[in-house]
Amino acid sequence: MTRALGVDLGEKRIGIALSDPTRTIASPHSVIKRSGNAEVDRRAVLNIAREEGVTQLVVGLPLTLTGARRAAARAALAEVEALKQLAPDLIIEAFDERLTTAIAQRSLLEGDVRRKDRKQVIDKVAAAVMLQSWLDGQI
Q: What pLDDT is stored for residue 112 in this prediction?
């Protein structure tokens, strides 16, 4: 089995998480600062996927609490389609990321992570929470 990559798309940063080779555990990997160029940002995500030998990308889909798709969700789905065009060899799908940032924030607060440090890692921790939820659903 190969690793899966979790992607949490934000306006300023993209959080990246990586599963273990058995696809049991998700771990925070890195944060990509948005460049202002969507193509450059997509290629940065795909470069990490290639470096890590990933065959599947799971992109967070920011639905509302009621499950509605608003502008952010439509933008995420457009990113999924753009990534598929750039990497037809990878399996790329969207997955519900509701409350992942809140869960990540709480986890960091409980771990006494300082505010300054939380801001630097919240995106990759949220990506790991989302990817772990996806992994748990694959069993």
A: 60
